[in-house]
Every structure is written in C-alpha cells, then in structure tokens.
Design a protein that fits this description.
alpha+beta; four-stranded antiparallel beta sheet; 4 strands; about 70% helix; rod-shaped
C-alpha cells in the first residue's frame, strides 16, 4: 500500500503539474485575447472619438454658414429699411408703410391691409414714384379712415 500511495502521489503530482501548465497556458491565451480585444475596443473608441470630432467640426461649419446666411439676409433687410424713404399710412382698418427710393418701391410692411408689391412696383415705375405716392395717399384717405405721412 505504501508503494501505491507513492505512485498515486507521483501520478497526482504530474497531473497537478500538467493541470497548472494547461491552466497557465489557458490563462496566457485568455490574457492575450483579452488584450487584443481591449486594443480593438480602444482602437474603435479612438476612431469613434475622431469621427465625433470630425462630425462636431462639420456641424459647426454648417451651423456657421447657416447663421451667416441668416445674418446677411437680416442685414440686407435692415439696410433697405434704414436707407429707404417711407410713406407711413395709419387707419382703424389697418396700417401700411411703403419703403421707396428715388426710382422704385423697395418694400413694405402691413397690418390688416393686403398689398401686391410686384404689381404696385411695376405701376410706380410706369407713372413715377412721386406720382404713385401721391395717388396711393389719396386712395388711402378716400377708402379708409386714416391718412399717410412721408
């Protein structure tokens, strides 16, 4: 029995050593794949961060262009309103302000009154801006309860 115990111990020791070797090899391979997986995730995260930065820059550029277009449009409207002469007509039925220069009508603002800018502009160019403004003032005073001032 003593020989059997020693043989059993030697067999178990070799088995245990093999087990530790296999276990160590498994751990090494597992660790290797874990590191590869982490490297891939880091690479993907790094690529995602680069993509996010590029996307943010692109959106900032598009937003800047959009804001500049809006500001340019508002600036043009503001310049037209500041540099144009105005015929201001007020009444109980509604108000209208016609903006004009020496040659033509440049725009209008109206509340409660409709105004066909395109056709009125053509008509004002045909008869002259001063004649048109006089005619429009007379029409406004005749057809509403208000009056016009330059």
């Amino acid at each position: 029995t003593r020989n059997l115990i020693i043989i059993h111990f030697l067999i178990n020791k070799k088995t245990i050593n093999k087990f530790y070797f296999v276990n160590s090899l498994t751990r090494l391979i597992s660790s290797f794949f874990y590191l590869i997986n982490r490297a891939i995730i880091f690479s993907e995260t790094n690529n995602n961060l680069k993509k996010e930065k590029i996307m943010k820059k692109t959106l900032m550029i598009i937003g800047g262009i959009f804001v500049s277009i809006i500001l340019t449009f508002l600036l043009i409207i503001l310049i037209i309103q500041i540099t144009s002469k105005k015929l201001v007509c007020t009444s109980n039925e509604g108000n209208i302000t016609i903006m004009y220069n020496d040659k033509t009508i440049t725009g209008y603002t109206a509340r409660g009154i409709s105004y066909d800018l395109h056709n009125q502009k053509i008509y004002a160019e045909e008869i002259g801006i001063d004649s048109y403004l006089e005619e429009f003032s007379n029409w406004f005073q005749t057809n509403t309860t208000g009056s016009c001032t330059k």
